[in-house]
Design a protein that fits this description.
The complex is a heterodimer of chains A (72) and B (242).
Chain A: H1 4-37, H2 42-71
Helix pairs in contact in A: 1-2
Chain B: E1 9-13, E2 16-19, H1 20-39, H2 50-69, H3 72-95, E3 105-108, E4 111-114, H4 123-145, H5 147-151, H6 160-201, H7 207-237
Helix pairs in contact in B: 1-3, 2-3, 2-7, 3-7, 4-6, 4-7, 6-7
Chain lengths: 72, 242
């Protein structure tokens, strides 16, 4: 049944978004907490937070690209 | 509306097909060359105007890379690569937001083929960048440690656990190529599709926050690509801690 393909596409990106959302939320929350404890290290903490967030987000982007390819 | 994941061919040059992303990449190179010509003309010791602007960007990037590498000599060795990647990826990402990109084109088999499309919205471009990055990471590791000690990170017979860790490290090097290329490609391509869909639904006022988001994400992706390359080079050139 070709209509089931759309369930697959929706599931792929939906589940990946859950994972990425939880992950990035935790990263930013700890970064904000660390800055609150030590406001001087704000620059370094911000850099590492951006790096960590981009690495986590990449996993959701893989699923997004896959779901685009599944449309065809 | 139709979006195609692959870049479309617009004309052929001596039998080689030229895609719309290739045309945009040439435009980006032209833009960077012209602006660097104007920035370095009549260079003064106390900069002003466009030279000042570019010096600000280059200096901030240098401080950032030096913060990650730790050592000034190594930063100087790796900085030309990092800065080139940064400028080219940034300009490529942001060019896709200009009016006319993705909308002006010709019709082929009933589908619109746009003349211009962001250069990094093509998996070929990002795959090329990823391969250059990973190969340079390996080369700098071998140059810093020598091929025996660098090879010991991957093929290590001292204990069964270390052997499997080495195999995993080897697989992870290949995973880096895929990860680099898909991160950049997916980010830019998904941004393009998002803008197309939003502009198709509500053409006035509504696309503004999404354009802002695209600007922000384009910059972040360029920065992250450069930072990850620098961090992996740093990891590759440090001795394995025992």
């Amino acid at each position: 049944m070709p209509e089931l393909k759309f369930i697959g596409i929706g599931l792929a990106i939906g589940l990946a978004a859950i994972g990425a959302g939880v992950g990035i939320g935790m990263i930013v929350a700890r970064a904000i907490e660390a800055t609150g404890r030590n406001p001087e290290a704000h620059g370094k903490i911000f850099n590492m937070m951006i790096l960590g967030a981009a690495l986590t987000e990449a996993l959701a982007i893989y699923a997004l690209v896959l779901s685009f390819m599944m449309i065809r | 509306m139709e979006v195609s994941v692959a870049a479309e061919r617009i004309f052929s040059l001596f039998g080689i097909p030229v895609s719309n992303t290739m045309l945009t990449a040439w435009l980006a190179v032209l833009l960077l060359t012209v602006s660097s010509f104007f920035a370095t003309r009549h260079m003064k010791n106390i900069p002003s105007g466009i030279q000042n602007f570019f010096e600000w960007i280059v200096e901030s990037l240098f401080d950032l890379v030096e913060g990650f590498m730790g050592d000034r000599k190594q930063t100087l060795k790796i900085f030309p690569l990092a800065a080139t990647f940064f400028f080219f990826i940034l300009v490529s990402n942001w060019m896709g937001l200009l009016p006319g990109f993705g909308s002006i084109g010709f019709y082929e088999h009933g589908k619109l083929v746009p003349f211009f499309r962001s250069a990094t919205a093509d998996l070929n471009t990002t795959l090329a960048f990823a391969m250059i990055s990973v190969i340079i990471i390996q080369i700098s590791g071998v140059m810093a440690l020598g091929i025996r000690r660098y090879g010991k990170k991957f093929i290590n017979f001292s204990s069964p656990i270390n052997f499997f860790v080495g195999i995993l490290e080897l697989i992870s090097e290949f995973a880096k190529i895929i990860s680099f290329s898909f991160r950049l490609f997916g980010s830019v391509f998904a941004g393009e599709v998002l803008l197309t869909v939003i502009t198709g639904l509500v053409p006035y006022i509504m696309p503004l926050p999404f354009l802002g988001l695209e600007l922000f994400f384009g910059g972040i992706q360029a920065l992250v690509f450069v930072l990850l390359t620098v961090v992996f080079i740093k990891i590759a050139t440090t001795e394995m801690a025992h």
